[in-house]
Amino acid sequence: MAKILISRDGVLEQTLQLSKERMAIGRGRHNDIVLEHPTVSGEHAVITTILDDSFLEDLYSTNGTFVNGHRVGKHYLQHNDVIKLAKYRIEFVADGIRPLTGAALSPAVPHPATPALPAAVIEVLNGSNAGKRLALTKAQTSLGRSGIQVVIISRGSLGYAATHTEGEREALLNGAPLGRAPQPLADGDVLDLSGTRMAFRLA
């Protein structure tokens, strides 16, 4: 399980396991990770963990979120990435994300399941973009409009999964609410985002 090491002024203050799918970071007491500093926004950022992968997203904070010296909106976290929020230095440690694979034992050996993972695409079924295809080659692919309705499709060692991440109106998977827990995708599954229907297809 991945973890983060939180330091301020060179002093390690917290070590936290990313034990939840969504962990909010901010000054407000309701956050999962509370950073008590006036330059930290009430709701500053969030770390979402889907299958094997963790993603950092800035929540339109006043002073920004930085990874390895660069301001980010969304970022796929990798081992030893350094996140800066105001006076805080947060190191992402990816140890144990894949505890049952050869990659965890020998990082130089490619994960055996990754090459065998079939290629996949999202095909738009209706509307002006009907027939268009989007290849799912990234670890994380976002569908929809930010702030209205967003679905993330993750590509991990166990296959593909979809998660509803933004918007009060939930996206649908095969006619049922998708929800905020990762749902495995099978060939031919249909996603519905505000009336736009898209099929998941294995290439």
TrEMBL record:
<dbReference type="InterPro" id="IPR008984">
    <property type="entry name" value="SMAD_FHA_dom_sf"/>
</dbReference>
<dbReference type="Pfam" id="PF00498">
    <property type="entry name" value="FHA"/>
</dbReference>
<protein>
    <submittedName>
        <fullName>FHA domain-containing protein</fullName>
    </submittedName>
</protein>
<dbReference type="InterPro" id="IPR050923">
    <property type="entry name" value="Cell_Proc_Reg/RNA_Proc"/>
</dbReference>
<dbReference type="InterPro" id="IPR000253">
    <property type="entry name" value="FHA_dom"/>
</dbReference>
<feature type="domain" description="FHA">
    <location>
        <begin position="23"/>
        <end position="72"/>
    </location>
</feature>
